[in-house]
Amino acid sequence: MQRNPFKKYRGFIKGAFLNFLAFRGEIFTWVLQDVITTFIMVFLWFAIYKESSSQIINGFAYPQMIMYLVFIVLSSNWTSNGASFQEVSHDISDGNIANSLTRPVSYRGQKFALTLGNCLGNFLIFSVPLFIIAMLIFSLGLGQPWPQWYNILFYLVAGCSAIVITDSIDFMVAQLGFLTNSLFGIFLIKNSVFAFLAGQTIPYSFFPAWAQPVLEYLPFSGLGSTPVNILIGRYDLLQTAIHLGVSLGWAIFLYIASVVANHLMISHVESAGG
After folding, report:
1. N- or C-end of the chain: fewer Cβ atoms within 10 A?
2. CA angle 45, 48, 52 (to 5 degrees)
3. CA gap 16, 173 in Å, rounded
4. Domain that includes residue 130, residue range
5. Cα gap 17→26, rounded to integer Å
6. What residues contact residue 202 under an 8 Å CB cut-off, 6+ apart?
7. C-alpha dist (Å) from residue 78 to 13, 30, 121, 240
8. Distance CA 272, CA 38 (A)
9. pLDDT value at position 238?
10. Residue 45 lies in a domain
């Protein structure tokens, strides 16, 4: 009888989930920081709309803009809570990379399993309650409709794609640890640039007209713009299918690229006498 090849990764997922529960206070401080930042953005956009002569700016009314900003922050909390960058960089700096590579499991697979455990814990403990609270506020306070059930389902699929895309990029960036010790600065720059290109700062409709269709088909859109626009109903079913296809395609490509990059970097270190 053939053994399930994924069964050996369950322990990594469970371990990361339990570790998240043990240190959820640390995560709470990051969530609190995002909440404060969101409140600042809400009041900033309130001032912008108040001074505007139009109730709609680049296709967004004020309640829709607030929904977009709040949900994109909540989405990034559970889709960007990966473990690969920190785990790989620590393995390299602490000299544990050799032991990790000798385990009878894929090195890339075990780091991705840890990411799944972290993201699952964040989603269940923080994101779901905050999503419900936010929707109650939008529904009762701003008169916005609840998302359609199928948009919620498509949003979850898009969120899973975002986890793979984010974690794969983080894993590849962490490979630079074989070459440099300045990973933290590189990571911060990467996060800032990607947040902007993913539409987490402003929606794509505020970008130049020539840049909007380009960004829609790059992997960055799958990190923020695509999941949130699906959730709040700004895409019809055809547009949803297209954007989900793009995100899933990038997720598969980048995961494979991260595996190849790891093999190439390890081969480079071995050939250099590392």
Report:
1. N
2. 140
3. 21
4. 12-271
5. 14
6. none
7. 15, 12, 8, 21
8. 47
9. 93
10. yes
d(CA 56, CA 63): 10
The dihedral through the CA atoms of 8, 12, 17, 22 has a sign that is positive
User: What does pLDDT average to in each consecutive run of 10 residues of the chain (274 residues)?
Assistant: 62 76 68 79 86 84 89 88 79 69 77 88 86 89 86 94 93 77 76 87 89 91 92 91 95 93 71 47
Q: How far apart are CA 226 and CA 240, in angstroms?
A: 8
- Paired with 56 in beta bridges are 61
Return the pLDDT at 226. Answer: 93
Q: Has residue 62 been placed in a domain?
A: yes
Q: Scan for tokens 């959820």, then name that residue.
A: 24
Please name which of 159, 145, 131 lies closest in space to residue 74, comparing C-alpha atoms: 131
Tokens (6 digits) for 208 = 């130049």
**Cα gap 80→103, rounded to integer Å:** 26
Q: Where are the alpha helices (DSSP H) in the chain?
A: 10-22, 24-51, 62-79, 84-94, 97-101, 107-122, 128-141, 149-174, 183-197, 211-216, 225-231, 237-271
Asked if residue 170 is part of any domain, the answer here is yes
**Which tokens in the block code for residue 131?**
């999503």
Q: In this structure, how many other beta carbons lie within 10 angstroms of the beta carbon of residue 160?
A: 17
Q: What per-residue confidence (pLDDT) applies to 152?
A: 93
Task: Please give the tally of structural domains in the chain.
Answer: 1
Looking up tokens 């720059």, which residue turns up?
189
